[in-house]
Amino acid sequence: MNINEVFEKYPTQKDCLNHLEAVKWGNKPICPYCYSKSCTLMQKENRYHCNTCNTSFRVTVGTIFHGTKIPLQKWFLAISIILKAEKGISARQLGKEIQVTKDTALRISTQIRQAIHEFSNVESDETTLV
């Protein structure tokens, strides 16, 4: 995906959150703390409330997006850029592409690469078990 495709498909933060919910939960929220499916949406805060353990959470809990102040569109764009970069991309260049500082781009790229590495390890573990 290029920058135009990312911003066309996910024009708002809410669209990004909806996509994460569909991927993570299939649009049926599950509490990340007690794994209950008895959750209700708190509209104003764009958070969910677990009726079992009485906690509130967002879909980003337990993901690389948890606690970020960077818009998810920029994260999605960074993921696309990193996955497409055949020879890798520097933090300085990524920062220019997604319009964040070099240090922020370094943190984002580190988290993305770590998640890719963990996902690759999980997939290779599953194939060796089969």
Characterise this structure.
The structure is a single chain. With 130 residues, this protein is mainly alpha-helical. It has one domain (3-129). Helix content is 53%, strand content 8%. The protein is built from five helices and three strands, in the order ααβββααα. It has helices at residues 3-9, 13-25, 72-84, 91-98, 102-129, and strands at 39-42, 47-50, 56-57. It has a three-stranded antiparallel beta sheet with strand order 1-2-3, with no helix packed on it. Strand 1 (39-42) and strand 2 form a beta hairpin. Helix 4 (91-98) crosses helix 5. The longest helix is centred in the last third of the chain and has 28 residues, at 102-129. The model has no long low-confidence stretch (mean pLDDT 89).
Question: Could you give a short description of this structure?
Answer:
The protein has one domain (3-129). The chain has helices at 3-9, 13-25, 72-84, 91-98, 102-129, and strands at 39-42, 47-50, 56-57. It has five helices and three strands, in the order ααβββααα.
Category by helix and strand content:
mainly alpha
* Uncertain spans: none
* Outline type: globular
Largest sheet: 3 strands, antiparallel
The DSSP helix count reads 5
Q: Kindly state the mean pLDDT as a whole number?
A: 89
Strand content: 5-15%
Q: What number of domains?
A: 1
Care to count the β-strands? Answer: 3
Helix content: 40-55%
* Oligomer designation: single chain
- From N to C, what is the helix and strand string? HHEEEHHH
Q: What strand order characterises the main sheet?
A: 1-2-3
Terminal residue distance: 33 Å
Radius of gyration (Å): 16 Å
